[in-house]
Amino acid sequence: MITRRSFLRGLSATAVMGHWLTSAESRAQTGARPLRLMMMHRPNGTIASDWLPNGSIGPILQGFDGVGGVMAPLRGLRIVAEPHGTGTHEGALVTLMTGRSVGETRATSNDDWRNSAASLDQIFCQSSPLLGGTPTPSLQLAAHNRQDGNPEVANCTLSYAGPDQPLYPEVDTEQVYARLFSGIMPGGGTTAEQEAALRARARRASVLDFVTGDLTRLRALMPAAERDVLDAHTEAVRALETSLDAGNDPVDPVCTSPGSASGFRDNDEHVDVARIGARQLDLVRAAFQCDLTRTVTYMWSTSASRVNFTDLYSGMGRVSHHSLSHGDLSSAAVNRPLAAIDRWYADRTAEFLRNLESAPDIGGGNLLERTIVVYFSEVAAGNHTFSDLPVVLFGGSQTGLRTGAVADVRGRTTNELWLTLAQRFQVPNLTTLGTSAQASGPIPGLFA
Amino acid sequence: MAAMTRITCASLLCVALGCTGFIDDPSRASATVEGESCKSELPPQSLALLAPRHYANAVRDLLGVASFPAPRNTGGSTVSFFANATERLTTVLAFELKTLAEEAGTRARAQAASLAPCSGDVETCARRFIERFGRRAFRRPLATSEVEALLAVYRVGREQDGAYDAGIGLVVEAMLQAPSFLYRRELGTSAEGAERLDAFELATMLSFFLVDTIPDEALLDAAEDGRLDDADGLRREVERLSSSREGRSATAAMVLRLFELPRLASAERNDTAFTVDLRASMAEETRRFVDDVLFERGGSLAELLSSRRSFVDARLAAHYGVAYPSGATDFVETLLPESERAGLLTQASWLTAFADIEETSVVKRGLFMARELLCEIIPAPPEGVVERTAETLAALPDERSRAEYRKSDGLCGACHRSIDAYGVLFETYDQLGRFRTELHGKPVDASWDVLTPESIAGPATALVPVLDQLAQAPEVRACIATKVASYAFGRPLTAREACNLADVARSFAGGDDLTALVREVALWPGLRVRKGGAP
């Protein structure tokens, strides 16, 4: 009897298709359990007195009460002191995610710093044996990315494939859904559905044959130095096909399609961010259950976010987040709404963590047990300070994270946090990052 | 001599600052004003992803539909003057382009009867469609092997879905995902130590420049017949395209992008007066003004930068404090106050686009003038200076005080002395472009020493007379000429590349007509030449 999978493989004439089937089979055979990394950003820092007052849990962090057992807040972590670029939301975010000095700014803005190295999440997913091998190597998502006037890359991006190669997060949830799940047929689908899928597949294979031929023809015409553009094109198409193919390969009974939703619409109001964010994070939950990816970067909004918040408490009115964060932080008229906003992000994030906790994982347990979430902001507070970043690590029982207490890491850097995570994810050859002043080594005691 | 002095001054500061650095580096990224020499370099061969709008317009024209969506996952600035924000395909963009191509394929299938009419042998019809549609999509005739490969795609589409139109739809889907469609190719063929774009590459470049979309059939015919290699033939095509309705609208759009007016659409200003309607009125005023200058006033740059004439509706009339005729309902032509307004840079649209959320921005406005209108090379702030000054600057009460602080600080002042001069002159316009004489209960002092360009340097007390002078300044003309040429390339030209433009710049310095400048750039022989590359 011909299994559906081998029948599909027989159809896939193009080289791009074989890869995922093989790797999925080998993963199925070795029975390796997933471990996942999620970098979750929320904008504009916090209000220190409501975050970790004197090193104890403040009202904002109480938003995580329901998942407090998996929480490790960090006290005193700082972004590595870089002469260039930090001092701005944009530069700080680039430095934090890449662990390196920023490059030049883009021509369109003096704050739009280019990155000079790949972001660490990308290095991790390419070289960690625990993160690699999934059909979609990594996901970049956001719940809001609208910017004022002259949009900047550095404001709206966490992940970079290489120097000046931003991987923009996708905001349109239904595009994300289609890319990840459109091929998944619960229970393998009816015969008619399978036949339709096979016809679609034959069409796709013929399109890809033509595209591949065109790439080859064009490549031969290019000067050697210019070929990398086409190589990147080839790689992106290959990665996409691998990702799309995954839907045809039933992984595990816990893997189900989250279902399509109605049309996507974004806006600058906090209710819209809540709605889009909830959908994005549900797609992440489903992608984890299908083991489609193990590395995610997620932005609630851009750095220096312009999201408007209305009446989070009685009498608050409507405020624009970034604009307000540059006010007098010692005034209650400013710090009270800002604290309420950061609590709002904490509550939404806690809801996601609870959803991970109630979702069964492949091979038993729940998703949160094998997921590490780094919840952070690009600044400590609205006045652009970077020495005590509001960062929390979350990780369930199988992650080895020491939870339940505040970790005093005063003086340690974000680069050192990356080195610590590199150890946990068994990333080879990542023992230094930046200069020795920026990272002396992993932070001891965070993981068991 | 004047130029020598400037270079020496600049280099003293620059050595100290580590900014641009060397004596023979220019201070402007524009073609030089008459008399100066510069080092030149040919532009390199290139392969660039289509700009989102070029993609959308191309599919629109290929399918003959009213409009088609542009890809969104291209990142970067949507307001950039230049077309090519994205350099590489990402997986997310690949998926979006696949989805868009499928949508185009579905539409093509639905209208196969008009796109690929067929009354005889379907295979013959499909071949004819592939050759014609393919030439337009790839902006060159297809090789026989490509036609055969696309026929194979057609057959799969027909067999899988059992119909001719399904095959046509799949061919469209395949072509729109092929690099030959998705990339703008400027490779050329070797000639006399350089590369010379072939007629189809030139046609593509001209078409994106002049009409913002792929070449039409007539332009491709001209390329195929060798007419673009002939000066008269080329001139005829450039005239035809630039004077067409599409050409006029593309030129107007270029001018709006040159002034970065797309910023207005997403500008956020913490001011209840800034309603959706007011924003729309602001944009409409400038759109009408630019059309009027380009096509009714001889394309005059001087008018663009210093005209008192403009167009207002009731809402804008109140905003500017000018009379609006009773009984009128739409935009009317009006004269704005002589001493308060001069040209596009004093219109509410531009002044609002270049401001901050709560107040004006001396740096945003000044930087635009220095970089975009005078083509000065302004480096990013030196290391550490932003952190060192952020708190002090934030604590100062207004933008003028901040400019004064930067002037007094050696490191900041080196660059900000020239940037802030223009920014401060704009202080008589608030963050919504309303004219003001008072701020925080005190008279606004917008006076400053203008340092550049040399042709108008000196003390200034108000913006309007300075704009009147800039409207005639040779440095501005040279810069605009360079910008328009850069627009044709879809990317900023380096100072050395701009150096090749001396003839175009000189000609525009002696003239005033922006539409003539567009045609001159289109006919400029340098447009076709690229640096020789090893195969």
Q: How does the SSE layout of this entry go?
A:
The complex is a heterodimer of chains A (448) and B (535).
Chain A: H1 4-11, H2 18-30, E1 36-41, H3 48-51, E2 71-75, H4 89-98, H5 120-127, E3 139-142, E4 159-160, E5 166-167, H6 173-181, H7 191-221, H8 227-245, H9 270-289, E6 295-299, E7 308-310, E8 318-320, H10 321-325, H11 332-358, E9 371-376, E10 391-395, E11 407-408, H12 414-424
Chain B: H1 2-17, E1 46-49, H2 52-63, H3 91-110, H4 112-115, H5 122-138, H6 144-161, H7 164-175, H8 179-182, E2 183-186, E3 189-191, E4 194-196, H9 199-211, H10 217-224, H11 231-243, H12 245-258, H13 276-296, H14 301-306, E5 309-312, H15 314-320, E6 332-335, H16 348-353, H17 362-373, H18 385-395, H19 399-408, H20 410-425, E7 438-439, E8 442-443, E9 448-450, E10 458-460, H21 463-470, H22 474-489, H23 495-498, H24 502-509, H25 514-523, E11 529-531
Helix pairs in contact in B: 3-7, 5-6, 5-7, 6-7, 9-10, 11-25, 12-13, 17-20, 19-20, 22-24, 22-25
Q: What can you see in these coordinates?
A:
The complex is a heterodimer of chains A (about 450) and B (about 525). Chain A is built from twelve helices and eleven strands. With about 450 residues, chain A is α/β, with parallel strands linked by helices. Chain A has a seven-stranded mixed beta sheet with strand order 3-6-1-9-10-2-11, sandwiched between helices. In chain A, strand 7 (about 310) and strand 8 form a beta hairpin. In chain A, helix 7 runs antiparallel to helix 8 and helix 9 packs parallel to helix 11. The longest helix of chain A has about 30 residues, at about 190-220. In chain B, strands 3-4-11 form a three-stranded antiparallel beta sheet, with no helix packed on it. In chain B, strands 1-2 form a two-stranded antiparallel sheet. In chain B, strands 5-6 form a two-stranded antiparallel sheet. Helices cover about 55% and strands about 5% of the residues of chain B. With about 525 residues, chain B is mainly alpha-helical. Classes of the chains: A alpha/beta (about 450), B mainly alpha (about 525). The interface between A and B is large, with 73 and 68 residues.
